[in-house]
Amino acid sequence: MDGSFLIGARAVTRDDTFRAIDPATNEALDPAFATSSLDDVAEACRLAADAFDTYRETDPETRAAFLEAIADEIEAVDGLIERAVRETGLPQGRITGERGRTTGQLRLFAKLLCQGRWAGVVIDTALPDRQPLPRADLRQRRIALGPVAVFGASNFPLAFSVAGGDTASALAAGCPVVVKGHPAHPGTSLLVGRAIQAAVRKCGLPEGVFSLVQGASNALGGALVADPHIKAVGFTGSRHGGLALVEIAQKRPEPIPVYAEMSSINPVLLFPHALAARAADLGKAYVGSLTMGAGQFCTNPGIVVALDGPDLDRFVDAAAEALGGAAPQVMLTGSIHANYDKGVTLLGGQSGVETIARGTEDSGVNRGRAALFGTTGAAFVANPALADEVFGAASIVIRCADKAEVARVLEGLEGQLTATLQLDDEDVEDARALLPILERKAGRILANGWPTGVEVSYAMVHGGPFPATSDSRTTSVGTAAIERFLRPVCYQDLPDALLPKAIQRANPLGLPRLIDGELE
Ligand SMILES: NC(=O)C1=CN([C@@H]2O[C@H](COP(=O)(O)OP(=O)(O)OC[C@H]3O[C@@H](n4cnc5c(N)ncnc54)[C@H](OP(=O)(O)O)[C@@H]3O)[C@@H](O)[C@H]2O)C=CC1
Ligand SMILES: O=C(O)CCC(=O)C(=O)O
């Protein structure tokens, strides 16, 4: 690996460099990676704009073949898993699974393109004899928004990074992509970036369809979002970072949408009958979800809400026992580990909060030690700081005096990616009463499972009201993610010769169409 970054078809090096750090040892890794300059960012965006009109009008099958080619190329990269493990401290099994999720996601978007519904073809045929006025021939389709900036996420070096969900959905929509790689895993980013570059070449697409800029400076990402050629942004990371990008995007002469997935504490509700039947099992399973991947999931179960009583005591005892035996795990970066420790100290020091259990003692650098806290519903409602996300394996159990207090706790929450119900049949009526609140708060409501581990599918919603995301109308996982990067255009009375193929009268692309309100 040569430490370059990728501008269109070129691999570029610069004198200004940075290195990945192995979080397990704090050792700086070879090679040194070139830091992209602001001119490099501008050049990547200009190439993307040059490629846009050609790329967006490629046939769906061409883009599908391109996504398939990216998946094939990623699978053929030597040393990808090892490099990602080294740069993130995540276990090999997890990274291998994540590669499968990444290539599966690309192939799912390829399939979606061939199915055609994404194009949103709607036709109102002309009614020349309509009284009192004739109706024109109206044809709607969706076109790509323009070049998209994607920010790689630290916690998913493959599935939410260079060829992750944002990139896959933008490329599927017909948008060229400029990725800002996460500075914690530049080697992983470059290997995946080269795989995309190879696929661009093999498929004969314009070079500006993909670029990867790298560096460890806010200025780079800021310049990317501010670049006039960029028309939308995909981001997964901190609330602070996401909001900074939203602000830059809003202050542009031409404001653009930012799809930022940020912070979520993912409430888990334990209903009385479920708790009575299986408190200890639930306690153990909760800790499994909480500590997976050192808790570095935005879907991590950060709060548990239940009625106080002996069944909740049994849940807490089982959770405390499981968590007390949990070994500390390497976190993604030194600063994420430091933020975690700070968050745990802040939460544990709040009035009315007790520390129920901690994982076993730290035994090396950047190891996150799991933490379980407890408080009352009244204390939680009175102090918004108790609902701040602590990114890592920390969670708080809220003991509520009655059902009304459960509802008050939920009403007080900010927007969430998920809400989880642990319930039995006898709990359904209690759950029904809370469903309207949960629907207002969360993007995904699940029963008798755990929120970590998002399925990549047609029905998935990985989104939610602020601050879970900056735009609750969409999802960043699943096929509906393509809609973030499309916009409708209506063509009125255009002759067939001038119409794009998607809405020509003979339907040469064979797309599904809604004609005069009826599915064809
Ligand atoms: N809820 C979630 O899913 C996640 C939450 N987090 C939270 O984020 C914290 C930091 O982790 P990290 O993953 O680095 O997330 P950040 O949000 O700090 O960074 C993510 C990306 O955004 C860029 N960025 C951040 N702020 C700005 C800015 N003001 N202007 C321009 N670009 C910016 C970063 O670039 P650069 O570093 O070059 O500035 C990086 O490429 C964690 O401790 C955790 O609290 C992290 C991951 C996921
Ligand atoms: O739980 C998952 O699979 C996805 C989590 C996620 O999107 C994130 O942590 O950023």
TrEMBL record:
UniProt xrefs under SUPFAM superfamilies: ALDH-like (SSF53720)
Catalysis performed (reactions): 2,5-dioxopentanoate + NADP(+) + H2O = 2-oxoglutarate + NADPH + 2 H(+); 2,5-dioxopentanoate + NAD(+) + H2O = 2-oxoglutarate + NADH + 2 H(+)
Assigned EC number: 1.2.1.26
Domain Aldehyde dehydrogenase span(s) in chain numbering: 16-457
UniProt GO molecular function: 2,5-dioxovalerate dehydrogenase (NADP+) activity
InterPro entries, per database record: Ald_DH/histidinol_DH, Ald_DH_C, Ald_DH_N, Aldehyde_DH_dom, Aldehyde_DH_Superfamily, ALDH_KGSADH
Entry keywords, A to Z: Oxidoreductase
Family in the record: Belongs to the aldehyde dehydrogenase family.
Protein name: 2,5-dioxovalerate dehydrogenase
The species this protein was found in: Hephaestia caeni
